Amino acid sequence: MFDLSPADWTAVELSLRIAIVATACALPFGLAIGWLLARKQFWGKTLLNGLVFLPLVLPPVVTGYLLLIWFGRRGPIGEFLYNTFGIVLSFRWTGAALSCGVMGFPLMVRPIRLALEAIDKKLEDAAATLGANQFLVFLTITLPLALPGVIAGALLCFARALGEFGATITFVSNIPGETQTISAAIYTLTQVPGGDAAAGRLVMVAIALALAALIASEWVARRATIRFHGD
Amino acid sequence: MLAVDVEKQLGALKLSVRFQAERGATALFGPSGAGKTSVVNMIAGLLVPDRGAITLDDVVLFEAAKAIDVPPHRRRIGYVFQEGRLFPHLSVRQNLDYGRRMSRQPRDAGEFDRIAALLDIGPLLDRRPGKLSGGERQRVAVGRALLMRPLLLLLDEPLASLDAGHKREILPYLVRLRDDAGIPIVYVSHTPAEVRRIATTVVRLDDGRVVAAGGIELLKDAETDSLA
């Protein structure tokens, strides 16, 4: 069914690597910001909420362009990262992971926030009276109870990252073997004569991966719900 | 000995409460809305008073004037809530063990078995809280609070959410607890019959103030309503 060329496999492997790294790096931030939005009242909360959801409503090209300006080698953050840690993001797969993480972030934060809001704070109070400090309360009560939402958020972010196109191609271009993901490879193939067959194969892969992610998210969420709430 | 002297504005209610609780069981008794639960929340550290002080066995838990406020997880005060508040994602055994694990005390099988026997919760250990009856849930909640080895035990209407049968089921355990565990108890209730069974001292609250304190003779004979 998937009679893929080595170049196709490279794109598939790269897409998976970028999506996994993007999701893993976004998760701690997603938890922190989801928790802030769910639990704390502070000045600028509406603004923070807006900023988090901005990539969802902005044209992806705009997000990619802003990333290029800020995280490019001469951008303020990119220059700092290069001079301090030697990290280069522009035109590298790591940059693709950044843009995919940013694009998937709103989809990750929302289920986490909702799951945290649904937790009975009284259970956390009870844990505190039993000797658990704030960190332990989060680790042993809040996080396990919110786990279905956290998993749902992570999988949504992963699925979004897997398919990201506009912001990524704007920020890190379309370099085979470095930043050419499945989406970018399909786009390239549609631009050359006779590329339809190869594009069709990658389209099948993209559909299969998306379906697998959806089914996995359903399954994991159901398992977590059974495990943590009886049935 | 527990000494409470606190003030707090709670919406329209001005809470101003002062009492002391010795060994045995002290009942905070009064109508709904008198501020009883707020007082125990302050003792537990879940609610911060505006003014005053709370001390337990010469340890200052709260003192507004000196900005002392020991956080709840360092107070070692067992709290049995009205609605149990068992952790739904943990088994009964893990719920019972929670306090010991969080304070990193070594496992004490003898203590565990003794309290499980005292409260008859041995057969429930591997179940989830969702599979327990109301009475079983409250017994586990009492066991969980006891197993953290508290210096003081707060019971906030532990029978309020139970029907008459379950109340009769759990009351003897609480009496046994008062006599055997040797931990001072603060017991919140608005039911005279319950208070009469359990309390050794009564502090009567109304509209945010202590209106009387003394022995159980404070409960007038007129208030002989049944447990149901």
Topology:
The complex is a heterodimer of chains A (231) and B (228).
Chain A: H1 6-39, H2 45-57, H3 60-71, H4 76-85, H5 93-118, H6 121-129, H7 134-163, H8 166-172, H9 182-191, H10 196-229
Helix pairs in contact in A: 1-5, 1-7, 2-5, 3-8, 5-7, 5-8, 6-7, 7-10, 9-10
Chain B: E1 2-10, E2 13-21, E3 25-29, H1 36-44, E4 51-56, E5 59-63, E6 68-69, E7 77-80, H2 92-102, H3 109-118, H4 134-147, E8 152-156, H5 164-180, E9 185-189, H6 192-198, E10 201-206, E11 209-214
Parallel strand pairs in B: 3-9, 3-10, 7-8, 8-9
Antiparallel strand pairs in B: 1-2, 1-4, 4-5, 5-6, 10-11
3D structure, described in words:
The complex is a heterodimer of chains A (231) and B (228). Chain A is mainly α and 231 residues long. Chain A has a single domain, classed as Orthogonal Bundle (MetI-like fold), CATH 1.10.3720.10. Chain A is 80% helix and 0% strand. Chain A is built from 10 helices and no strands. Chain A has helices spanning 6-39, 45-57, 60-71, 76-85, 93-118, 121-129, 134-163, 166-172, 182-191, 196-229. The longest helix of chain A is centred in the first third of the chain and has 34 residues, at 6-39. The radius of gyration of chain A is 20 Å and the shape is globular. The mean pLDDT of chain A is 90. Chain B is of the alpha/beta class and 228 residues long. Chain B has one domain: P-loop containing nucleotide triphosphate hydrolases (Rossmann fold, 3-Layer(aba) Sandwich). In chain B, a hairpin with a 2-residue loop joins strand 10 and strand 11 (209-214). In chain B, helix 2 packs parallel to helix 4 (134-147) and helix 4 runs parallel beside helix 5 (164-180). In chain B, 43% of the residues are buried. The chains are: A mainly alpha (231), B alpha/beta (228).
